[in-house]
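User: Hi! I'm working on a homework problem where we have to compare a predicted structure to a textbook description. Could you give me the structure for the chain below?
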Amino acid sequence: MTAVNKVAIAGSGVAGLAAAIQLAKAGVEVDVFDSRAELSALGSGITLQGNALRVFGALGAWHDIREAGLAFEGLALRAPGPGAPVVAQLPDVKTGGPDFPSAMGMPRAELTRILLAHATAAGARVHFGAEVTGIDDSDAAAVEVFVGGESVGLYDLLVGADGLNSTVRGLIGIETVPQPTGMGIWRTFVSRPDDVVRTELYYGGPVYIAGYTPTGDDTMYAFLVEKAQDRFGVSAEDATQIMLDESRAYDGPWNHIRADLVAGAAANYTWFTQHLVEGSWNRGRVVIIGDAAHSCPPTIAQGAAQGLEDAFVLTELLVANDAVDQGLWDEFHARRVPRASAVVAASVQLGQWQIDGNRDADAGGLIFSVAQQMAQPA
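Assistant: Happy to help. Predicted structure tokens:
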């Protein structure tokens, strides 16, 4: 017997869909509500560390995800300037254990498409153009969910997996919201030259970090991390030109990336944010997970992995217990809050060292320390 029979999930990102898959597989009735009109095909790529891949294995989605992306081992650091010499090659910790690669890259849209297919195959109902706009949690045994102002029924639990600007977070009175870290990132999705077989980062030059990650046999995404600026109103042509200009100090595969930008590859811009809801992530029968509960700069590529772990731990407890009670929430928070907190703190610290120009900081030691923590199952 599970602790829940009927669950509503707000948001169809990786955390929400992972929760939907596991609950539906256990025989729970699941409704996923998403404000978007349809599944987005936009976005560039995503880097997934081994602990994220371990969750995909538990979901039963690993085979499809492995086929849609490109797995790799290790990380290379290059210097800016002519020839882009490799100055260090760092091994990755297998945070997912020996059965999974250290990391992989894949198109974001493909990841969401695969998880959506697995959720619907398991029996979850996914509703697009349906934003959760209100709740009534006056009944301790259920929560009434409102979509577009209309009641859609009573549920044993509402999971708010609706992202950085979570509506559900506000509905339950949590005032913590994402804050800018002082960094912004340009991203583009381009073709992959044969010599790009892993993530490579360039430190120094006109931006904090320049890098790229392979996402498939023929694709990769590239990025430039700069001081946060008001770039949000620039035209598509100006966005491309900014990325071209800021990348000219970087040689090697960046020459290929610039050629694709000139040929029409789109550039997009966002700011890095950080936040962590301290203490409890639930209020009664409503709980937030993923980016709704925590966010961090992608300096150690753990954002998606932490959201997936939130979903996996939550659903494991819901399936293993008989009731949604304080004991369940205490175990959930004990397993998730310290781990997510460590990732947020380390990710923000790595970015701040870049902003401060701290050349004595032990970035490698911090990254390795967090990786060792993540190698232990959540």
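For your comparison, note the following. The chain has ten helices and 20 strands. The CA atoms of residues 136 and 144 lie 5 Å apart. Good luck with the assignment!
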